[in-house]
Write a structure and sequence with these properties.
By secondary structure, the chain is α+β, with helices and mostly antiparallel strands. It has two domains: 157 residues, no CATH class; 112 residues, 3-Layer(aba) Sandwich (Trna Endonuclease, Chain: A, domain 1). The chain contains nine helices and 15 strands. The N and C termini lie far apart (48 Å).
């Protein structure tokens, strides 16, 4: 198991029983359109070909919606590798889990025509997950990767390799998971309290069809932590979160995301801005930002109080 993913099988897991019975995961997004000629070249090639197809089918949609839909479709069809673990949420707070057993298959005339065969192994309860994993797995997106949770999932699903060098692997993965958890908790807190922040007074986290779509928005250089849009719909905002002290490397990272937004997502009359959120900065990042347009730096503060009962 090299990576783990969540793939939602319709709203509320409405197709989960069929999926388990027939041994697949599937998505829709673009209906009965054969995407096979556009696979094999990576996410950027796929989106370059398919975004215009999507917008032609749904002219009322935005470029942001097209990028999200086609990014999810590519991830389900090609981004998930054979041998990866997939979790499919079911309505009863359990997740069916299995191993992807093959490449893309096209099944026109079905509710979920874009499929991958899966060897389903069993199910795990959301209640057995750590709070961080449960929070991450509960994000209402159709397809997304469960980064830094493979060690916990290997234990929960009993798919760990007994011959693997457990001490070294666990040591490395625990360090990565702890670092990821801190940033994930910061993201969760910011999203849940967005309306009460200064950013929330100017921007809304991007939504599509009433569903949150601005968390971990896919780009060709990695997922953005948060993509937001100004209340007058004229500015897109890329939010990059860092635990502790931010280094000047994050400036290049957020510029790459902003470049993607500028080139691929902006509608006429729109602009893109960025904000880096961390606990501390330093002289190097101050210097980098002093000659960088449209990127702000904001600090977060963690407080801990004890009160008499």
């Amino acid at each position: 198991m090299t990576a783990a993913w969540v793939v939602r099988q319709g709203r509320g897991g409405q197709f989960a029983d069929e999926m388990i019975r027939d041994g697949y995961i599937g998505v829709d997004f673009i209906g009965d359109y054969d995407i096979r000629p556009h696979l094999g070249g990576g996410a950027e090639v796929f989106r370059g070909a398919m975004n215009s197809v999507y917008l032609g089918m749904y002219p009322d949609k935005t470029k942001v919606a097209a990028g999200l839909a086609m990014g999810n479709l590519w991830a389900a069809s090609e981004g998930i590798a054979v041998g990866d673990l997939v979790l499919a949420p079911k309505p009863d707070r359990t997740y069916q889990y299995g191993i992807v057993a093959g490449g893309y298959e096209y099944h026109p005339g079905t509710e979920l025509p874009h499929r991958r065969p899966v060897d389903w192994k069993g199910s795990i309860s959301r209640d057995d997950m750590s709070p961080t994993l449960a929070s991450t797995a509960g994000v209402p997106m159709t397809v997304f990767q469960l980064e830094a949770h493979t060690a916990e999932l290997a234990t929960l699903t009993q798919l760990a390799d007994p011959a693997a060098p457990a001490v070294q692997v666990i040591s490395t993965e625990v360090q990565e998971q702890l670092a990821f958890q801190m940033e994930k908790q910061l993201e969760d807190f910011l999203v849940h309290n967005w309306a009460n922040t200064s950013l929330g007074r100017e921007y809304d986290i991007y939504e599509e069809d009433g569903q949150p779509a601005g968390r971990q928005y896919p780009s060709d250089t990695g997922p953005m932590d948060i993509l937001a849009i100004s209340k007058d719909r004229t500015r897109l905002l890329v939010v990059e979160l860092k635990r502790g002290r931010a280094s000047d490397a994050v400036v290049g990272q957020i510029q790459r995301y902003m470049g993607f937004v500028h080139n691929e997502l902006l509608e006429p009359g729109q602009s893109v801005e960025g904000v880096i959120i961390a606990q501390e900065d330093d002289l190097r990042i101050q210097r980098a930002l002093s000659v960088t347009r449209n990127i702000r730096f904001m600090k977060y503060r963690v407080e801990f109080h004890l009160e008499e009962a």
